[in-house]
Amino acid sequence: MPIVEGTCGWGRLFQLYPDHLRVHGAVYELRHLTQIRPIYRSLLGLPSARLELTFGQQRVILRGIAAVEDVRKMVDYLLRTCPQARLLATSGHEPEPAPIESERTSADPAETAAPATERETPTALMRALAPTGWQMARRELLQRRQARLQEERERRQEITLSRQHGRRSPLKDPLPPVQVPVRLAFGERAYYCCQATLCNEQLRPFAPPEEAVRDHGLLILTDRRLIYLGRRCQILLGYDHLLQVIRQRNGVAFLADHWRRRELFTMRRPLECVLCLEKLLWRFQQERQLSTLMSVELEEQGEEETSPNHEASQRERRVGSEPVTR
Predict the structure, then answer these.
(1) Please, where are the H alpha helices in the chain?
(2) I want to staple 271 with a disulfide (CB 3.0 to 4.6 A). Which of 101, 111, 133, 154 is the partner?
(3) C-alpha dihedral (113, 115, 118, 122), degrees to nearest 10
(4) Exposed (0-12), middle (13-18) or buried (19+): which is 144, by Cβ within 10 Å?
(5) Closest Cα to residue 259, out of 308, 295, 226?
(6) Whole-Å CA distances, 115 to 36, 91, 127, 216
(7) Greatest extent of the chain over all pairs of C-alpha atoms, in Å
(8) Model-level pTM?
(9) Burial class of 38 by CB neighbour count within 10 A (0 to 12, 13 to 18, 19+)
């Protein structure tokens, strides 16, 4: 029968017999035991112990032992039966029993000092238990900070361009046409094309980022409309139905008069997309106003041309209807 029996770590079984120690199926002879180092601590009000045993060149660590009395009993038995084993100083919140500590530490004072790097603090234990959540939170904070810096940099760049003297309005600058992998209408030209991701704006609390992504594709801006070519869906929006354009931290949101909600497109350079769209909208409005004025002038000219002919025909009718007198 084992002298001491318990569990350590994630349910690993250890058993102490009179001549050997069995840990999760591995057997260690007590005659090879050279060092014993127990550590007692209390984490969040719960007592626990850790036992480090050295068998020659091999080191065995029993972590997370809830039964502290079994560890004390185990240490007492090992010190009595293994005179060649040395007891090292403990580095925990609870001190080791006085008699055992005084007997062994007085013999070897140089070995009682434990290195500071091997001490385990509650903060280090909490980080070891949940490293993934802590790293994810830190990564998220860094991404938010980088996004804020990028937004501030783009805003300053936009203000600098608008305040430059001797430079004409950026809306009137010509845009070079680009080649797009889609067939456009007759006379229609594309001036902007980029990789964009269609996302959802409203999500449930603490939802993963994967739920926001709806589709991946190309965002194309022409002189007449907005075109989105995705793997799952396609969006065509004429500029005459566009109501609102909102630049966000990492994308651009569009709202149309026949949509129930906004459509968010995330991209690498949202400021460049907004500036290009602003030029295209300004040009579209100018062409629309020009076409309206031309149609009004044509209507007025048609009315002026038709009015003399109408008066002449009325005069002829009146002359023909009057009686001839001699």
Answers:
(1) 68-81, 98-107, 122-129, 131-163, 270-321
(2) 154
(3) 70
(4) exposed
(5) 226
(6) 16, 9, 20, 54
(7) 161
(8) 0.44
(9) buried
The DSSP secondary structure of 221-263, one letter per residue, reads EESSEEEEEESS-EEEEEGGGEEEEEE-SSEEEEEETT-SS-E
pLDDT of 175 reads 80
Q: Write down the pLDDT at residue 173.
A: 59
Residues 6+ apart with CB under 8 A from 282: 171, 172
Write out the two tokens for 49: 């112990």
Nearest to 8 by CA among 52, 56, 59: 52
pLDDT digit string, tens, across residues 187-213: 899 999 999 999 987 666 556 666 788
Tell me the chain's radius of gyration from C-alpha atoms: 42
- Number of helices (H), then strands (E), belonging to the chain: the values are 5, 15
The average confidence (pLDDT) of the chain is 76
Predicted confidence at residue 102, as pLDDT, reads 36
Give the other-Cβ count within 10 Å of 215's Cβ.
Answer: 17
DSSP-assigned beta bridge partners for residue 8: 12
* Model pLDDT, residue 17: 87
Residue that wins the pLDDT comparison between 223 and 300: 223
The yes-or-no verdict on residue 221 having pLDDT over 70 is yes
Helix, strand, or coil here: 182? coil
Residue 137: band (very low, low, confident or very high) from pLDDT cuts 50, 70, 90: confident
**What is the chain's length?**
326
